[in-house]
UniProtKB/TrEMBL annotation:
InterPro entries: His_Pase_superF_clade-1 (IPR013078), His_PPase_superfam (IPR029033), PG/BPGM_mutase_AS (IPR001345), PGM_Phosphatase (IPR050275)
UniProt GO MF annotations: phosphatase activity
Protein name: Histidine phosphatase family protein
UniProt KW keywords: Glycolysis, Isomerase
Alphabetical list of PROSITE patterns matching this protein: PG_MUTASE
Length: 205
């Protein structure tokens, strides 16, 4: 069976504060490291992992390192910038309420990942979507038949992958809340890719 396990990074200080992260070098909280270690312990018992990939941002690197502390025999990771969160450029670091003041027409019930603005030194929604679609194609090509691979990434990427697999509107999917920190989204890659579970936290059970 060919399986891809997509993991969101552990809780960061900016997650806790409600800041827009984008590509910022944000570190994990103690809770985020504990989440990643718990995930690693579950992963080591539930799967034999053949390949590990990760976004190259600090929070995903730290999550991957913490997972490897408790998952014996996990392969060394390959870091891939195409798995990054949407780049928010000059808006990185703003609190959610500050963003709401800057963009009063934005629906506050929706994630700022849907913000229809091209931030200076950042990515438009279209650029982000196109990058994730290319990254997804690369992931599915990378995982060999019969392998189990883990890819540590970000909430926005996971939401767009869900849209790809379920033929949902990407904009509507981005507007939804991100899956939990250190959640697992499982995709079966035998034949047509199939979403097995989304945003699960089996390491809490």
């Amino acid at each position: 069976m060919t399986t891809l396990l997509l993991v969101r990074h552990g809780e960061t200080h900016w997650n806790r504060e409600g800041r827009v992260q984008g590509w910022a070098a944000t570190g994990l909280t103690d809770r985020g490291r504990e989440q990643a270690r718990a995930l690693g312990a579950w992963l080591g018992g539930a799967h034999t992992v053949d390949r590990v990939l990760s976004s190259d941002l600090e929070r995903t690197r730290a999550t991957t390192a913490a997972v490897r502390e408790t998952a014996d025999g996990l392969p060394s990771p390959a870091f891939d910038p195409s798995l990054r969160e949407r780049g928010f450029g000059v808006y990185q670091g703003f609190l959610a309420e500050e963003m709401a003041d800057r963009f009063p027409d934005h629906d506050r019930s929706k994630s700022f990942l849907t913000l229809a603005v091209d931030p200076l030194n950042g990515e438009s929604v279209t650029d982000f979507r196109d990058r994730v679609e290319r990254a997804w194609d690369g992931l599915t090509d990378t995982v060999a038949d019969g392998e189990t691979a883990v890819a540590v990434t970000h909430g926005g990427v996971l939401k767009l992958v869900r849209a790809i697999l379920t033929a949902r509107d990407p904009q509507a999917t981005l507007a939804q809340s991100s899956p939990p920190n250190c959640s697992v989204t499982e995709v079966g890659l035998d034949g047509t890719p199939e979403l097995v579970r989304y945003g699960a936290t089996p390491w809490r059970d």
